[in-house]
Amino acid sequence: MHLSQLPWFILVGVGAGIIGAIFLKALEVSESIFGRLNWPIWAKLLIAGVAMGVIAIYVPGICGNGYKVTNKLLTTPSTDILLTSVFILLVSKMIATAVAVGAGTVGGVFTPTLFIGAALGTILGLVLKHFGHAEPIPLSAFGLVGMGGALAATTHAPLFAMIMIFEISLNYSLMPALMVGCVIAVWVSRKLHPFSVYLAPLKRRGIPIESGQPDQVSPHRQTVGDLMRAPVPPIPETASLTEIAQRFLSTSHSYLPVINTNHQLIGIVALDDLRAFLNQETNLPVIAYDVMRPPPPLITPSQNLADVLPIVLASDMRHFPVVNNALERKLVGSLARADVVAAATELLSG
Fold first, then answer.
1. 3-class SS at 320?
2. Which pLDDT belongs to residue 217?
3. Domain range holding 340?
4. Which of 13, 14, 16, 34 shows the shortest CA–CA distance to 24?
């Protein structure tokens, strides 16, 4: 990725910011409409189901979590993608998701946001290539930056979006474009819709949010420190394969934090990471450092629920390591996914 190509991703960031704000507004309008209906929840869900069914008859790609369609957008050559089809997918997914969420269905907006971002990036990439621009840039790059931009635009968390999309692509050369797209998307989205997908419901329910700081909720909200539990016992980076296996056998956790000689968090070892070694000799010269993966985005006790909610919802981990600060990275506790979700649910329903 050359610096001369970055202006095209500024365009993607602007588009993602606009689409993200429109999506947030659509969710708000849908929830408002369904909220005014004095009907039982089953009747609202029935309406949403019928609406989804009608849309799915004509656009079946909106069904499910969208991973299959998103993957196809990222892997199909530009010559095999029809621009109008992707546009229809984009609009249909936004409408279907807004209706479903507004009616009260449980499913979230994380994967639909990635779907919408991939579709938007693909559309912009196709348009640019049609007019002879951005030819050396693969279409998948536009799709990935679109995903990051849409995620950043709806969560107002650009760093989180960058990390998520980088973990999907594992392409270092994409980082400059991803940084530009995500930052621009957040800036545009905030101008059009000041509250993120997590804070907008709080505002509608009258929960105080400090003015001038749209993503900072009142200090009376719970922090990570309030929800924090004792840390999951870590393993040293030099732990052998046998020691790691024994630790997993003695705990219910599927992830173990890894620390270095300075007791700093440097990664995590997942039970799934050991599957490749299960049928091999247990005395292989493999240590925790060899099989660990990068830790999730750092969580500190002073962060509030709005800060960590995107991190928690984007991962399949049940317990997240908590460090004292981003510089020292000393393990001080763990944050349970169930506690965060329960606290968020209580806050939104209160």
1. strand
2. 43
3. 224-349
4. 16
Token pair recorded at residue 192: 């059009």
- How high is the pLDDT of residue 215? 47
Radius of gyration of the chain (CA): 22
CA distance 159 to 23: 20
Distance (Å, whole) CA 54 – CA 72: 23
Average pLDDT value over all residues in the chain: 84
296 residue type, one letter: P
Residue 16 corresponds to which amino acid? A
- Each residue of 19-73: pLDDT tens digit? 999 999 999 899 889 888 888 888 988 998 999 999 999 999 888 778 888 888 8
Give the predicted TM-score (pTM) of the model. Answer: 0.61
Band of residue 14 on the pLDDT scale cut at 50, 70, 90 = very high
Taking 90 as the threshold, does the pLDDT of residue 142 lie above it?
yes
What is the Cα 233 distance to its own chain's centre? 27
Q: Which of 151, 154, 163, 159 is nearest to 121 (CA)?
A: 151
Let me know whether 21 and 74 are in one domain.
yes
Spell out the residues 6+ positions from residue 229 whose beta carbon is closer than 8 angstroms to its own.
319, 333, 334, 335, 336, 339
Two tokens, residue 136? 């050396």
Are 224 and 302 in contact, with CB atoms under 8 Å apart? yes
pLDDT at 220: 40
User: Cα 215 to the chain's mean position, in Å?
Assistant: 16
Which H or E run contains 268? Answer: strand 265-270
Residue type for 338, please? A
Sequence-ordered alpha helix ranges (H) in the chain: 6-36, 41-58, 67-75, 83-103, 110-130, 139-155, 158-169, 175-192, 200-204, 224-227, 241-249, 288-291, 305-313, 337-349
**Could you tell me if residue 89 is inside a domain?**
yes
pLDDT at 258: 96
CATH of the domain at 33: 1.10.3080.10
CA gap 104, 99 in Å, rounded: 9
Domain containing residue 284: CATH number: 3.10.580.10
Same domain as 149, residue 20: yes
